[in-house]
Amino acid sequence: MLGLLVAIGLFALSIAPAQAQTPDKPVRLVLQITVDQLRGDMIERYSAGFGKGGFRRLLDEGLVYANAHHRHANTETVVGHTTLATGTDPAVHGMVANIWLDRTTGELNYNVQDADYPLVGEGGGVDAKTEIDPTQRLATTQGRSPRSIQSTTISDEITLSLGAKAKVFGVSIKDRGAITLAGHTGNAYWFSKSGGRMVTSTFYMDKYPDWVKAWNEKGVPASYANTSWKFLAEKSAYLHGNADDAPWEIDFPGFGRTFPHPYGPADGKYFTTLLTISPAGDEIVLDFAKELVATESIGADDVTDYLSISFSSTDYVGHFFGASSLEAEDNLHRLDRTLADLFKYIDDRVGLDRTLVILSADHGASEVPGYLNSLGIGGKHFKFDEIDSSKAIAAIKAKFGISAKKLVDRYFHPYLFLNRKTIKKGGLDYGKVSRKVAEELRKFPGIAYAVSSYDLRAGNVARTPITEAVLANFHEDRSGDIYVVFEPHWFVADFDGASVAGSHGSPWTYDSHVPVIWMGPGIEAGKIVRRVETVDVAPTIAAYLAIRYPSGARGKPLAEIVD
Ligand SMILES: [Zn+2]
């Protein structure tokens, strides 16, 4: 009997690894690249300065979906990354925002925080005094894990299908950029600004492999000390060559609004932060990823491995200088070089003819309101405390007899949270209160739409494109009480004390539009302008590899890739 079972097992093994595209030459590596805040038009827009091996290679040899969109309303980093990883909406995968209010503890929750899994090694956590990322600063613990993600990821499915021989890794400057795509079964590494090194948490391992220790000791970040971010070409070669200085750019102390941007000494208070607001951040991630590929033998055998790299510099540069700035343009030229370096390295080690490459973004970007206003297009940095809310406050008091300030707990993008205890104690009807507050919010200048979760849940709202996007974002436990959509080009820029020039997070096209580019065996070069959605990415990878779809997947495989 045992012999028969072994025989069946061997037979099953002999047929299991067959793959859809190239049965004789299986794909050895899935390389999923995410460029944080890379709006769908930006590659073409800044392509004049590109070399041959980076973006140009993807455009010439890859299949480009030129009209791909996130379909959820809250176009934020963790939401987009997890959607790309799982092929489903935040309503299902649960990562509805970078921050949400945990109703059981009453505390704000940073998306990938997890007190059960502290960082490996001493220090390396978020230093609230110097952290400029307002969402990371709000984490109530230094521990990190993917346990809040409620669907399997495509990387999980590779592990489930191919077993432990399939190696799965995610790397990024940002914890959430690495953790989301590494899934529950892979290993994630990200950059600690306080430690100036790559770190991970005990969810993944108890101690660092020797190669990670060695890489950290090499001091790649410190090698940028006392150098500057200079632009690559002559100013005249840039679209924005004559617009280096604009009043709406953030003048970060010591870094300035114009080139060259000096990093300062390695012991400078914001030295590692400045590396992330420049192409250096992506170069550091690439250097680490190359070491990972070499020492972990990524793509070295016929069992498909998975490597996710999320490049974060485009996001920080966009927030500080805007999407239409010389900095954004030069950063993309630098990223083009970084990608060329990556592709050459993978080609030499693994072979691009044995690698499936996917490039996309977690969200796009709004232009800076000041820039838009200079062109006669509206737009504004929205500030709740500058709004005259006296009429709304009076209307709510008149209807319910309780002050609006007591009924409203807080706003945290994109949700307004009501004080449910006050509503209950006052004997008020939760549905009526939330609907009335949404109604008053809609009257505010700069607010296009506000809808209560109560009405979404009850099916009381018309199915417009905006409500569809808000519904895709609606999660029973994690969504707030009222979803607030600002007018196009209006956004909250003063965010927990940190001001930004440009931002994202709306359902409007500039935020939802992202590139989706595929390059690999069996994929014909071309350009598709039919609208597709980012939930289609993970199911397409699954179909391409002939493996199971992520558990919550709602997207459809893209026919041009898998047929
Ligand atoms: Zn992002």
A few lines on this structure:
It is built from 23 helices and 22 strands.
Task: Write up this protein.
The protein is of the alpha/beta class. Helices cover 35% and strands 17% of the residues. It contains 23 helices and 22 strands. Strand 5 (168-172), helix 8 (175-182) and strand 6 form a beta-alpha-beta unit. Helix 15 (390-400) runs antiparallel to helix 18. Residues 1-23 have low confidence and may be disordered. The chain binds zinc ion. Zinc ion binds at residues 36-37, 77, 315, 362-363.
Helix/strand layout:
Elements: H1 2-15, E1 29-35, H2 42-45, H3 55-61, E2 63-69, H4 77-86, H5 90-93, E3 99-102, E4 107-110, H6 134-137, H7 154-162, E5 168-172, H8 175-182, E6 187-192, E7 197-199, H9 210-218, E8 228-229, E9 261-262, H10 271-276, H11 279-295, E10 305-311, H12 313-321, H13 326-349, E11 355-360, H14 369-374, E12 380-382, H15 390-400, H16 404-407, E13 408-412, E14 415-418, H17 420-425, H18 430-441, E15 447-452, H19 453-458, H20 465-472, E16 482-486, E17 490-492, E18 494-495, E19 498-499, H21 509-512, E20 513-519, E21 526-528, E22 532-533, H22 537-545, H23 559-562
Parallel strand pairs: 1-10, 1-11, 2-21, 2-22, 5-6, 5-10, 12-17
Antiparallel strand pairs: 2-20, 3-4, 6-7, 8-9, 11-20, 13-14, 14-16, 15-16, 18-19
Helix pairs in contact: 4-8, 11-13, 12-13, 15-18
The structure holds zinc ion.
